[in-house]
Amino acid sequence: MVSGFETHIELSTKTKIFCGCTTQFGGEPNTHCCPVCIGLPGTLPVLNREVVRFAIKAGLAVHGEIARVAKMDRKNYCYPDLSKAYQISQLYAPLIIGGYVELSNGRKIRLHHIHIEEDAGKLIHQHGDTYVDYNRGGVPLIEIVSEPDIRSIDEAKEYVERLQQVMRAIGVSDCKMQEGSMRCDVNISVRPEGSDKFGTRTEIKNMNSINNIAKAMEYEYDRQVDLIESGGKVVQETLRYDDATGTTSSMRSKEDAHDYRYFRDPDLVTINISREEVEELRAELPELPADRYKRYTAELGLPEKDAALLTKYRRISDYFDEACEGVKSPKTVSNFIIGQIFRRTETEADKEIFDVAVSPAALNELVKLLDSGKIRNNLAKSTLEKMLDTGKGALEFISESDMGGLDENALLELCRNAVEGNPKAVDDYKNGKEKAIKALVGNVMKNSRGKADAVAAEAKIKELIG
Amino acid sequence: MVTREDVENIALLSKLFVPEEELDELTKSMQDIVDFADAINNAPASDEGFDNINNLSNVFREDEVVESFPSTEILKNAPEQAEDHFLVRNRE
Question: CATH 1.10.10.10: does it fit domain A408-465?
Fold first, then answer.
């Protein structure tokens, strides 16, 4: 399988790309419009500075080269989603050239370029007629065009997830596929294993969920392989994926022949980008998820699985970093977040928002109590649950008497009590039932209110039983 | 060279209907336009790049929301409308 992606991402600027209308999602039909974005004659588009800045940030985050000179072009086609019969886009001099997205298997999916353009209006087809709402028309997009470097469905899914993750982390888009703020066109072809020639490709348009991307690619891969193996030929065409049937079908009729007659938009002047501005924007970028992942695994010694979960959403990594401030074992913080806090933020949406009753500082305090040996793991865990229930700090639930380890004598005393009070368990252990010792240790733990060290207690009990 | 097929194709892409008897004349006028543009392209010019007549670059606006128009204004020029939408009828 050979696949390349064209990914459209709506930028979360306040206003549209060429006018001051709001970019808010939804709204009553045709209420976020003005003469510029519906393309009335005599109006002049003026480029939103923030769009350029956001796009440059996006380019830097995927290691692209920022052009010194960029220009806007007109892409001509007649369809009701464009009131002007052309879309203002970039072909000859896009803002960002090259770049790559690195996958967890170490492969780099190279990018061809990233350009800025305006989104089209929304069409509602009803009883054969089309209702047009131009609220979305003119919302700024970046289109990220990859090279045909993707080799499997898993790589495709990860590529989209990585883009989503990084664009959210740098704050240029919310990348909500279900609201259409991220959409993918998937190019796919097949070739015999070992061949280095590309087969004829087809393009599946406008995919709006990662699940559907996977299903559509699987269907299209099988279709192309079957076609070739039965002696047929793949026709280069644009396809639509039907979610209900799980199949792809041809989309274009012959009158939609690909001929966009691109030319320079005479209404918009050249964009010159100084190196100073690029460096300024680079300095504004937060630590990228991929860099965080490397720091968590290499410097903090977290398992890859933990690092992946903690870097999926920016709020979670920010939370983790803050809770880790000055602690001995970042893994402990990770365990608390993944093991306990994640149970309170079950859905992906909850994880993205990551609104947790316990502040990172409060978790930090709890972990430090554990680090310093003042409390034991079990007590820390149950305390965290109480903190999550109430939003109160650790010290609300841990009294002075809970803190501090047990001294040698106190531990000995508790062990002795356990042995004397449980003759049956002692006999069982003596008769070879290794597990019986756990009951004795449990008794010590309970009577010490979780303060005893289980390993030390077990050693001491064995000593006593002899 | 502009051909009759070019004109037919451009008409199709622009969703224009051109009667058969006008094709020859249109082909000739389009050829005239292309020749005119070629004449400009061939005019002697300095080596310095030329971008636009006012030599402008980096014309931007700030990202500040301006009130949009009421949908009644937006829809005023719509050939047809329904439920606050532009309406495009299926003519097939």
Answer: no
